[in-house]
Task: structure prediction
Amino acid sequence: MPIAQNPLSVEVTLPRDDTALLTVQGYLDIDTATEFQHHLANQLHHGRRHFLLDLSAVPFMDSSGMNIILRVYQEVRELPGSVHIISPTPAVRRILDLTGVSITVPVSESVEEALERVDPPQEPATEGED
Result:
C-alpha cells in the first residue's frame, strides 16, 4: 500500500460542547480531502454545530479542500451553526480571497477571535428589564 506523499494531520479539540476546533497540518488537496471530510462528518454526527478550522499549518489547498469547507458551511447553516477559518497561510488565504470563500466563511486570526464570533459577548441585562 503506497504511503501518501503529503500526509494530512487533523487534531480535534473541543473548546465547547457544541464547538470543534480542527487543527489541520499538511496539504489539503484531492489526496487528503476525504480524510478531512471524515473528521468533519464525525464531529457533525456527535452534535457539533460550530467548526473552527485552524489552517495555519496548511501550505497548500486546492478546490477539493475548498469544496469540503463550503459543504460543511452549507450543512451547519441549517442547524444553525457556523464555520470559521483561523490563520490561513498566505498561499491558502490568497486562494480563499480569489475564489470569494473568505467573503462567505469568516476568517479569524486566532481561536479566541473565532470563539467570540461564534458567541458574541452579550450585553448584561440591567435590573428592571423584562
